[in-house]
Amino acid sequence: MRVITSVAAMQRLALRWRRRGARVGCVPTMGYLHAGHLSLVRCARRLVGPKGKVVVSIFVNPTQFAPTEDLARYPRDLKRDRELCRETGTDVIFAPTERQMYPADYSTFVVEERLSRPMEGESRPTHFRGVATVVAKLFNIVLPDVAVFGAKDFQQAAVVQRMVRDLNFPVKIVLAPTVREVDGLALSSRNKYLEGPLRAQAVALSQAIAKAREAVKRGASVKADALRSELREFIEEQPAARVDYIEFFNPVTLEKVDSVDRRTHMALAVFLGATRLIDNGPLDGKGG
Amino acid sequence: MRVITSVAAMQRLALRWRRRGARVGCVPTMGYLHAGHLSLVRCARRLVGPKGKVVVSIFVNPTQFAPTEDLARYPRDLKRDRELCRETGTDVIFAPTERQMYPADYSTFVVEERLSRPMEGESRPTHFRGVATVVAKLFNIVLPDVAVFGAKDFQQAAVVQRMVRDLNFPVKIVLAPTVREVDGLALSSRNKYLEGPLRAQAVALSQAIAKAREAVKRGASVKADALRSELREFIEEQPAARVDYIEFFNPVTLEKVDSVDRRTHMALAVFLGATRLIDNGPLDGKGG
């Protein structure tokens, strides 16, 4: 396994792989890897086969953080990430420096203007511009045939898929299911922030999704507003929890629905103290 | 020579070429080809060699026109373009439909936020967003090793080069010199609009650049403001001419300079009646 920090060296290697006809799979991450990331790496390996190349990018991308957010304290542990990638059969870790990715006079961005508007886009207005930009860059540097994203960041995956379609990137996007703790908490590098009683309270997110599923199973007609209020109340029973949003939407267009049914997708963001967690799932009871 | 109108078919062919290791050169155009375009096609052929593939894209890109501009009346003649491309050794004309390039729910754009601000960007605020977007799409569809742009659209080339650097497209951008009529008028598809006396008056643009060169040759210190006023007056001696802008700038950063010298680049836009023409050149007397 190689660790490459230079953009030019990574792209040269990718062009060499291309000339040899090797299939390349890319797993873009911000590092501090957990079992969720590793499931993406294994998925990439399955997709490119034993002779293919799997690149895990590790880059805490500054352009997707707002000035008020946790860029500086975002957890990092490249040494541990290295071990985990090696054990999971990664060929290359691409871990560029910020200056390599964004030179001083950097000035080009990719903006997606529909799917990026609601939910995370409303709470974090410049977030998806940063995501789309860095993913476009990674695709041009790593030149993958396939890239694997986690379903836990559902809206991110939707924005990336739309970008790929709109800008015609010759890259296939694959979504891998959310990996959860036994109590249902979706794995996230930010779970590290959950100290003391916060960890136990964090289970409210996945429980809220389960409750929405039950409501859909029971009811012929479930009003989004009523369900939202009910779930907000349920979550905020946890003393440290404050709901940022709970949204019910069409999983293709990400348009809000007034009436929730089995075709509806739910997403939510909740602050637990200073830590903001997200989760989502389809309401058809098929998991996610 | 093939004419391809489907995005998917073009990308499939490009991927096939790539697997065979063929070098690909791309010349993005809006059609209504003239000798300037053909010089770009010949340049692309030289760059990819006799075994390489040359793709000329012909697409009047709606996203780079403002609602008030000449999208609808922009000249088109695919039959003639076909003949010219064939004679110049083009392998493929890629002429997609608008719907192919921009499906109804299209929502992703590429924005360059520095070099695209002055000059054309000031007069045509959404222009370079459209240019950067369509060029990014073309690069992902045609997958060229090299793309050739005309120096006549100097700022466009600068924006595209910056986009390629920032988004790490594995594409080399080559600039080919402006082709001019014998009297100095830069070739442009929009010259077709110049009826009757307008054609003769259009020579004022290149003459203004020549006058600026002379001023630089003569003077130790040439003030941009004074030179601009002088040239504006000179151009507007032509009864149908109205200057949109005359700018003196650093050709790398596109930043305005107050004091004009041999390192300065000049660009201007002039309305001749309803027709807007642009031209530019370095002031070192080496042409362009």
Task: Please tell me about this protein's structure.
Two copies of one chain form a homodimer. With 288 residues, chain A is of the alpha/beta class. Chain A folds into two domains: 2-176, Rossmann fold (3-Layer(aba) Sandwich); 189-282, Pantoate-beta-alanine ligase, C-terminal domain (Pantoate--beta-alanine Ligase, Chain: A,domain 2, 2-Layer Sandwich), CATH 3.30.1300.10. In chain A, 37% of the residues lie in helices and 22% in strands. Chain A has ten helices and twelve strands. A six-stranded parallel beta sheet of chain A has the order 1-4-3-2-6-7, with helices on both faces. In chain A, strands 9-11-12 form a three-stranded antiparallel beta sheet, with helices on one face. In chain A, strands 8-10 form a two-stranded antiparallel sheet. The longest helix of chain A is centred in the middle third of the chain and has 16 residues, at 127-142. Chain A is globular, with a radius of gyration of 19 Å. The two termini of chain A are 31 Å apart. The model of chain A has no long low-confidence stretch (mean pLDDT 96). The interface between A and B is medium-sized, with 34 and 34 residues.
